[in-house]
Amino acid sequence: MKSAIVIAGTHSGVGKTTIATALMAAYCRRGLTVQSFKVGPDFIDPGFHTIATGRPSRNLDGWMLTKDTNQRIFLDAFATALER
After folding, report:
1. What is the pLDDT of residue 84?
2. What distance in Å separates the CA atoms of residue 11 and residue 63, rounded to the nearest whole number?
3. Residue 13 region by backbone torsions, left for phi larger than 0, else alpha for psi between -120 and 50, else beta
4. Considering Cα of 75, then 79, then 82, then 84, what sign does the dihedral take?
């Protein structure tokens, strides 16, 4: 089954990282393969994601990367998660 979930919030400090990381850990405990992504130039949250999922988290950034590059990063990582 292929699916994706987006966790978004109105601003910093509303709990996006906490909720997202908890969901990742819960899905992994249920035996699902989870591929995490972080939008924006943040290198702390992906560390939490990696610990929760056991897979490297990927950064997607519309300011620093082109749309095509972001799509390629997403699709490549998503595909490797499906192979597991």
Report:
1. 67
2. 18
3. left
4. negative
Tokens 């995490």 belong to 36
CB 38 within 8 Å of CB 57: yes
Residue listed under structure tokens 């990063």: 73
| pTM for this prediction | 0.84
Phi first, then psi, for residue 19 (nearest 5°) are -65, -45
DSSP calls for 13-78: TSSHHHHHHHHHHHHHHTT-----EEESS-SSHHHHHHHHHSS--EEE-TTTS-HHHHHHHHHHHH
Q: What are the pLDDT tens digits along the chain (84 aa)?
A: 578 899 999 998 999 999 999 999 999 999 999 999 999 878 899 999 999 999 999 999 989 999 999 999 999 998 888 776
